[in-house]
Amino acid sequence: MQDYYEILQVHPDADQETIQAAYERMQMRYDPDQLDGVAEELVELARQKRHEIERAYSILKDARRRANYDAEKRREARTTGIEESTAGHAAELLDYRPLPPARRQERPRGFNTQPVRSAAPRQRSGRGKRSTRPLWITPVIVVGITTFVILLSSLLITTLSGPSLTATESAKGVNLISTPQNESEAAAVERIMNQFEGQIVQARLVAQQRPDNFNSWMNLGDALYDSVQIVRERMPDSELYQERLPRWIEASEAYSEALAIDPTHIVARADLAASLCKYGESVNDPVYVAAGLAEAQRAVREGPEDARALLHLGVCLVSGDPPQIEAAMQQWQTVLTLPSVPRGIIVETQQLIQQYQR
After folding, report:
1. How far apart, in whole angstroms, are the C-alpha atoms of residue 181 and residue 197?
2. CB–CB of 8/26 below 8 Å?
3. DSSP H helices in 81-121
4. 142-149: long-range contacts at Cβ-Cβ below 8 A with a sequence spacing of 24 or more?
5. Exposure string (b/e) for 288-305, b if CB count within 10 Å is 16 or more?
6. DSSP character string of 100-142
7. Long-range CB contacts (< 8 A, 24+ apart) of 77-82?
8. Among residues 67, 157, 168, 172, which is most buried (max CB within 10 A)?
């Protein structure tokens, strides 16, 4: 029995507004008309996906049909013994809620992106509960908010006055913080991730306040991109990477916003391409890889000697099935022959060459 909630990427308890928003997002994501020049078999896959989305929406949008579907799912679960195998874990649910970028809304800190295991809220009894927060927490919160406002102001000034880091020295996929030898790998990764979380929150606020500013969207895309890339490098098979996979899409949406302001920006298009390709490879969805490859090829056509564009074209070439390793190697070797390439891009290119030469 097909899981229509999973097809639409919504929680089984989602309301109709959420289902409608998810349906519109998924329809746009798998629109065959946006795949001009892509192989026919990939276009056909997109059509099949759209058919599944239409079927799922036709059931879930109708209250009566949805109730019948839910009842049938419960009967199937009892028949297959799934409920018995999950005894004692009834409070755990898969979270398939749609991501907020569709509405440009800020997520609360600590929110788990889908699909992850999350505990259902517990029902509490009693009235007039008193806060158990220690008295010393209040001044700490005030200091924290004040510090955050100062940091946000600094980020706004940097965003609006200076060039985007993406256009200068930033290099995706490189260890951005050195790891002391006396620290464990887990502690180092945790420290890096916590830093990115703060950057993401600040960058989102700036993008919301200045949606017409190119650098604000680039900075948001970079923060999202780096926060998932570092996990891909260090822990590619971890649950944390699966949890952060949707950030590739969030990053691609931020880069798309930047391109809407400056359609000629080669780096923004190259980063958009890499985000789509890495997401498509990770979830085994060739539609995303094809869309990313098309963006990467366009970036190289517009900037045949742009190191970032060549680097990410290679990334997209090895993301397909089968991977085009020889063609990717040609792009990466070209990067190493270019003058004045940022060191971070050289390091990443060399790492990729070593990885695929094995």
Report:
1. 24
2. yes
3. 82-85
4. 148/202
5. bbbbbbbbbbbbbeebee
6. GGGTT-PPPTTPPPSS-EEEPPPP---SSPPP---TTHHHHHH
7. none
8. 172
Q: How many domains does the chain have?
A: 2
**Alpha-carbon gap, residue 286 to 352, rounded angstroms:** 21
Q: Which CATH number fits the domain that encloses residue 18?
A: 1.10.287.110
Whether residue 115 is preceded by a cis peptide bond, meaning omega within 30 degrees of 0, is yes
Q: What is the pLDDT tens value at each position of the chain, 358 positions in all?
A: 788 888 888 888 888 888 888 888 888 877 777 666 666 777 778 888 888 888 889 889 888 889 888 888 888 877 766 544 443 333 344 444 445 444 445 555 555 544 444 444 433 333 334 444 443 344 444 445 555 555 555 555 555 544 444 433 344 544 443 333 445 666 666 665 676 787 888 888 888 888 899 999 999 999 999 888 888 888 888 888 888 889 899 999 999 999 999 999 999 999 999 999 999 999 989 999 999 999 999 999 999 999 999 999 999 999 998 999 999 999 999 999 999 888 889 999 999 999 898 6
CA within 13 Å, CB half, 62: 9
CA Rg, the chain, in Å? 22
Q: In this structure, what token pair is assigned to residue 218? A: 């680039």
| SS3 per-residue string spanning 194-231 | HHHHHHHHHHHHHHHHCCCCHHHHHHHHHHHHHHHHHH
Same domain as 322, residue 218: yes
- DSSP state letter for 112: P
Residue 29: phi and psi, rounded to 5, are -65, -35
- How many residues are there in the chain? 358
Q: State phi, psi for 94 to the nearest 5 degrees.
A: -80, 130
Task: Return d(Cα 323, Cα 316) in angstroms, integer.
Answer: 9
Q: Say what the pTM is.
A: 0.55
Q: Which residues have C-beta within 8 Å of that of residue 298, sequence separation ≥ 6?
A: 269
- Structural domain for 164, as ranges: 139-357
Last-in-domain residue among 44, 74, 98: 98
d(CA 181, CA 175): 14
Q: Are 253 and 243 in contact (CB under 8 A)?
A: no
Looking at the structure, tell me whether residues 81 and 216 fall in a common domain.
no
Partners of 92 in the beta sheet?
119
